[in-house]
Design a protein that fits this description.
The protein contains nine helices and ten strands. The chain is an alpha+beta fold and 301 residues long. Helix 3 packs across helix 4 and helix 7 packs across helix 8. It is elongated and about 65 Å long. The chain starts with a helix and ends with a helix.
């Protein structure tokens, strides 16, 4: 009987073969976020993630890259799942009521390279075109996998506002007729966005949503006078948790934050683009005395 038991044990052991314990005992494998995997340079991972975001942003497509996440096995660092989150934004002003309507859908784009955390980081960092770099175990690049994802927006809403050939209210981006004045409005929003980016890391981006992005500023302007009837600032962000199975569970969200403004669009532009105010855009005093930071502080997580 002893010989039989020993034989069965040997056969059972031989059945495992050369595969790793992670492959043969999937239910026992633990998974972690790649950012928490101690066997890689965390700074290198964040650099690779930012590189992908920058390469995509340079394409000029109507999607804003938020963040890239990957889950890996806790011992060997084998990649289980990766996801890249995006958002897009559209806004419109009701010509009769000045109501501002937003559509800010998000996108969760999964891809599954067959490699390790260390090799993935090295490949993305060293590539001259990480976005289009073929990854191990994938039949296409990360970029090639995005089209299906963009066809499946999450949280999309229809924009239903009244239009008119002679509107009472228009969006700030359409208020000015000349390119020079339109550029001034663009510059004003750029100052506001830059100010947010500068403070987010120590404030709003220290929450679960570490990748909050300014998406769009829409302001309803009285066509006849240039008075600001109302402004709404849209944001989007995402975060990931790793399920027991190793799959990434993504939470993505958008916010529409009203700004307190009482004055004209020209006064708003002057305040945000002032060359004498040393505060960043998000802390500059808007017409009426309010500060944009204070408005969004009660809106964002």
């Amino acid at each position: 009987m002893k010989h039989l038991v020993i034989c069965l044990m040997l056969v059972a052991g031989c059945a495992v073969g050369p595969e790793s314990a992670e492959d043969t005992q999937q239910s026992a494998t633990q998974y972690v976020d790649i950012a928490d995997f101690g066997s890689i340079d965390q700074g290198a991972w964040f650099d690779a993630r930012d590189k992908l975001n920058a390469e995509f942003a340079a394409l000029g497509q109507p999607y804003t890259p938020l963040s890239v996440f990957c889950s890996v096995s806790s011992k060997l660092g084998s990649v289980k799942d990766c996801a890249w989150t995006f958002a897009s934004s559209q806004a419109a002003v009701d010509a009769n009521t000045a109501a501002i309507a937003f559509d800010v859908p998000t996108f969760q784009c999964h891809f599954h390279p067959k490699t390790t955390a260390k090799n993935l980081v090295t490949l993305l960092e060293s590539s001259s075109d990480a976005l289009h770099e073929p990854l191990p175990g994938m039949t296409s690049s990360i970029y090639d996998s995005l089209a299906a994802c963009f066809a499946d927006p999450i949280g999309a809403t229809s924009i239903d506002v009244a239009t008119s050939a002679t509107p009472t209210y228009v969006d700030a981006s359409a208020y000015y007729a000349t390119a020079a004045n339109q550029a001034k409005w663009t510059a004003a929003y750029a100052e506001l966005k830059s100010g947010f980016d500068n403070v987010c890391g120590d404030t709003f981006c220290s929450s679960d949503y570490s990748d909050l992005w300014s998406m769009q500023l829409a302001c309803a302007i009285t066509k006849s006078t240039g008075n600001v009837k109302g402004c709404t600032w849209a944001f989007a962000g995402s975060f990931a948790t790793v399920a027991t199975s190793g799959e990434l569970e993504i939470t993505s969200q958008s916010w529409q934050c009203p700004l307190a403004v009482k004055g004209t669009i020209s006064q708003m532009i002057a305040a945000l683009t002032s060359t004498t105010d040393t505060n960043d855009g998000v802390h500059r005093v808007l017409p009426g005395g309010a500060i944009a930071y204070d408005s969004i502080a009660g809106c964002l997580p």
